[in-house]
Predict the structure.
Amino acid sequence: MKGEKEATTELRLVGEITVLRAKSMDDAEADYSWRIDPELAGLDATRPVTLSFTEYLRYHRDDVAYPSPWSVRMAIDTSGGRHIGNCMYYDINSEKLQCELGVMIGDRDYWSQGYGTDVVKTALAHIFTTTELERVYLHTLSTNFRAQKSFTKSGFKPLRDVRRDGYEFILMEIWRKEWEATNPVEARSQSADTSSTSTSPSALQPDTDPLMGS
Ligand SMILES: CC(C)(COP(=O)(O)OP(=O)(O)OC[C@H]1O[C@@H](n2cnc3c(N)ncnc32)[C@H](O)[C@@H]1OP(=O)(O)O)[C@@H](O)C(=O)NCCC(=O)NCCS
């Protein structure tokens, strides 16, 4: 039913070279190391976290135990089971039928090898086959050419420049009809099968992450 959240079981989305899965307490150490990293924070137009690991664990525990109805947070694993980053869709808006997507591969050894493209394709397949959302958008720094190229390969198109908090972003988007045009029906039903969780948009309000700057 529209506006009703059904997510109760563990999320697991299988891509070609990655698996997106529900966040777990075991992710805390790697997540913390990425959150305090100045370069990663800079690429995300935010500041590194200054909390101690013990303080950070409190936020992490709450995130895992009490998922927000307005966002879906996922860990990115390689197909071999190595945790390399995180992906979330958030600000899920059931009026405008849209959400924002965020992706971060924290492990530099896995940059520029197609992992980001696979993650975003997998997340889009999930969103467009299991929710009623019509549009997915994202903001990326205008200087982040690797991210722009990766998102373009996943189907996003640049919409316009956005200036926010002194940063220059490119707003990119993909609409359901565009995604469906490049994903045949068979691929769509396969994508839906990879998920053990169905999540419907239920939000009218934006989601917030006290540790995230963008
Ligand atoms: C942005 C990110 C998700 C992209 O994922 P990825 O796995 O590294 O990217 P992909 O391999 O899918 O695609 C990157 C493409 O950009 C190319 N590229 C890399 N550096 C580039 C540069 N400086 N300029 C132009 N293209 C570049 C790669 O060669 C690749 O293209 P190809 O497949 O045609 O060779 C990942 O790099 C990441 O999380 N980085 C750190 C955090 C970050 O930048 N976050 C952005 C949030 S908006």
User: Anything to note?
Assistant: Residues 40, 43-44, 85, 103-105, 111-117, 140, 144-147, 149-150 surround coenzyme A (CB under 6 Å). Residues 12-192 form a domain with the Aminopeptidase fold (CATH 3.40.630.30).
